[in-house]
């Protein structure tokens, strides 16, 4: 059982609430989002502190759910030192041993966008990010800041996946991963392999956690997160390994 408290106070920062809007994950639910004032320019210490409180980044915005009648969104993270790949995950690592990884700044790249556009059109045509556009991509996944990085996964030079990540003082935050929707790559489970790669990157970088964003018990698309064990859940201001009620 582990817990963390922010290392830098955030009480002097300004936050805003959005108006209620349709929930992106659960049907017939309304959501409200708490976000840091976009005019703020938080340093690394503030971002680290907010991440420990369940905040995520989307483009230039730091946010977290703040719904009065619902607490379904639970922040989750992998404790790197205690993680051991399962049998199926070890097979996945072997299956993707021929991929190469390259780390780059989170800047716009036409090749990346082409893969992202295919991924959204073929895998998420019913989601909020459809249809994809250059502006949407830039706003969501590019940021000129040293902590924002893009990991390329290539097979014999061919780009097959990209993981957008943030390098925090206490871990790696997985922002978003998109990959080649070609059925030929289905057995590679590139999304899960990307998470395993982040665990290894965190281990090499001596960072204790990999943050996977939010887990929702009722959302089937998020079930994969629970395959990474042990998993820590944010209860209030404390991280624990018990699933919240």
Structural features, described:
Belongs to the R-transferase family. Bpt subfamily. InterPro entries: Acyl_CoA_acyltransferase, Asp_Glu_LeuTrfase, N-end_Aminoacyl_Trfase, N-end_Aminoacyl_Trfase_C, N-end_Aminoacyl_Trfase_N. It catalyses: N-terminal L-glutamyl-[protein] + L-leucyl-tRNA(Leu) = N-terminal L-leucyl-L-glutamyl-[protein] + tRNA(Leu) + H(+); N-terminal L-aspartyl-[protein] + L-leucyl-tRNA(Leu) = N-terminal L-leucyl-L-aspartyl-[protein] + tRNA(Leu) + H(+). GO terms for molecular function: arginyl-tRNA--protein transferase activity; leucyl-tRNA--protein transferase activity. The chain is of the alpha+beta class and 245 residues long. The protein has 2 domains: 15-71, no CATH class; 77-240, Aminopeptidase. Helices cover 22% and strands 30% of the residues. It contains 5 helices and 14 strands. The protein has an 8-stranded mixed beta sheet. A 4-stranded antiparallel beta sheet has the order 1-4-6-5. The protein has a two-stranded antiparallel sheet with strand order 2-3. The longest helix has 15 residues, at 190-204. The two termini are 16 Å apart. Residues 1-8 have low confidence and may be disordered.
- SS content category: alpha+beta
Low-confidence stretches: 1-8
Q: How much is the average pLDDT?
A: 93
Looking at the structure, the CATH topology of the largest domain is: Aminopeptidase
Overall helicity? 10-25%
CATH class of the largest domain: Alpha Beta
| CA radius of gyration | 18 Å
Order of helices and strands: EEEEHEEEHEHHEEEHEEE
């Amino acid at each position: 059982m582990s817990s963390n408290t922010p290392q830098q106070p955030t009480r002097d920062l300004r936050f805003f609430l959005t108006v209620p809007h349709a929930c992106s994950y659960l049907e017939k639910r309304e959501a409200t989002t708490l976000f840091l004032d976009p005019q703020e320019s938080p340093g690394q210490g503030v971002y680290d502190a907010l991440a420990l409180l369940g905040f995520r980044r989307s483009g230039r915005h730091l946010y977290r759910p703040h719904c009065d009648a619902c607490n379904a969104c639970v922040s989750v993270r992998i404790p790197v030192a205690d993680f051991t790949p399962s049998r199926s995950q070890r097979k996945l690592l072997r299956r993707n041993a021929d991929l190469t990884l390259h780390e780059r700044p989170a800047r716009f790249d036409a090749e990346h966008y082409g893969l992202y556009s295919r991924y959204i059109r073929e895998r998420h045509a019913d989601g909020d990010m459809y249809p994809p556009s250059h502006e949407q991509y830039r706003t969501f996944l590019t940021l000129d800041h040293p902590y924002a990085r893009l990991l390329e996964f290539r097979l014999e030079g061919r780009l097959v996946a990209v993981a957008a990540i943030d390098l925090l003082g206490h871990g790696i935050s997985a922002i978003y991963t998109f990959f080649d929707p070609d059925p030929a790559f289905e057995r590679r489970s590139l999304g899960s392999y990307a998470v395993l790669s982040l665990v290894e990157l965190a281990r090499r970088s001596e960072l204790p956690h990999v943050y996977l964003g939010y887990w929702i018990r009722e959302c089937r698309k998020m079930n994969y997160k629970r395959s990474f064990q042990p998993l820590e859940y944010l209860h209030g201001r404390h991280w624990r390994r018990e699933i919240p009620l």
